Amino acid sequence: MGLKAVHFGGGNIGRGFVAEKLHLAGYEMVFVDVMDSIIEQLQKTPKYTVTEIGAEGEKVNTITNYRAINSKTHEADVIEEIASADLVTCAVGPNILKFIAPVIGKAIDKRTQPKPIAVIACENAIGATDTLAGFIKDSKNTPQDRLSSINDRARFANSAIDRIVPGQKPDAGLNVEIESFYEWVVDKTPFAEHGHPDVSAIKWVDDLSPYIERKLFTVNTGHAAAAYYGYARGKKTIDEALSDSDINKLVRDCLSETSNLIVKKHGIPTDEQKAYVEKIIERISNPYLKDTVERVGRAPLRKLSRKERFVGPASQLAESGDKVDALLGAIEQAFGFVDIEGDDESAELSKILKSSGAKDVVGKVCGLEESHPLFSKIVPIVEKVQKSVK
């Protein structure tokens, strides 16, 4: 039998990044989703294209050899597929991991193969695979008398993914346009004597933490800062925002602060981090991506949370007494990203700002204790934003 991967999430990241790279590595793909429309499209369409866009031009890859299952209506089929697969991946959003854990847990418990299945969550969140594994190992999803032997059936590896997927054309169907640059880094240590999956697109490392924080606190911080400043100043796309010299400097100031943290904490050479920042600015400024500020800025509650792209680095810097002024400026813009059409989190943020005191907002949204040195710096920002939220 050939290699088989089961992927949860039939969205643009799933089809355009994870499935593309696994297809090129020789895997048969089995997509799993609960959205009838996407599953039906995948079932009826034998191939789709992934167009990689960069300064050097376009490259088109055609994706074939895949199937699709609706886990809402055919859970037993999903369990059978995972029970005989080599790899399980997901790109569903961090908040959805708890919903896919039960079926994965049942499938892992059913496995009898000598080599454990590899489980890799491909989410924009630190330790997403650990989070998923925690849900899978919950007594509701895995019999507790089977936990001691779960490593015989599955190995869980954290990953860091980096690739920009802009908004797609209305008539794109399953086809995906995506930036040509990508980085997919996975912790190889859980696989030990079994060896990690053979996927050439993945960079396998012994210590993932520098890659995760460097990516989250550079790519995601810079991208979101450009989106929030751009939205506040009436810009439509990220490249338009970054062509504004004031916004460009504000974003660079944010990345100067996060670079300070990354260099000190992970020992990455200053020149290397500077070059990385320049590469990121170049990437997110790509005019061919036509990425809208509203798409990039969506889900502000998650992006303002404790371990995310703004509060995450700012909290660590504040603890060591380092400068966080630029990050506080971006946090202010993020709090002002409210009531965006089609973005439930921006509507919820608006409700929270209108119904709670500033200190409660900081505790609830940012996850900070009142004793934390960053807490008192964000409270006046929230108070200022609250005066402008109608």
Mean of the pLDDT scores?
Answer: 95
Number of strands: 12
Pick out the low-confidence regions: none
- Categorize the overall geometry: globular
Features:
globular, 390 residues, 6-stranded parallel β-sheet, single chain, alpha/beta
What does this entry look like structurally?
It is a single chain. This protein has about 400 residues and is α/β, with parallel strands linked by helices. The protein is about 45% helix and about 15% strand. It contains 16 helices and twelve strands. The strands form three sheets. It has a six-stranded parallel β-sheet, with helices on both faces. A hairpin with a 2-residue loop joins strand 3 (about 50-55) and strand 4 (about 55-65). Helix 4 crosses helix 5. The longest helix has 24 residues, at about 210-230. The radius of gyration is 21 Å and the shape is globular.
Write the layout of secondary structure elements.
Blueprint: E1 4-8, H1 12-24, E2 28-33, H2 36-44, E3 48-54, E4 57-63, E5 66-70, H3 75-83, E6 87-90, H4 97-110, E7 117-121, H5 128-136, E8 154-156, E9 159-162, E10 176-179, E11 183-187, E12 203-205, H6 209-232, H7 238-242, H8 245-266, H9 270-284, H10 293-297, H11 300-303, H12 311-319, H13 325-335, H14 344-355, H15 358-366, H16 375-388
Parallel strand pairs: 1-2, 1-6, 2-5, 3-10, 6-7, 7-8, 11-12
Antiparallel strand pairs: 3-4, 9-11
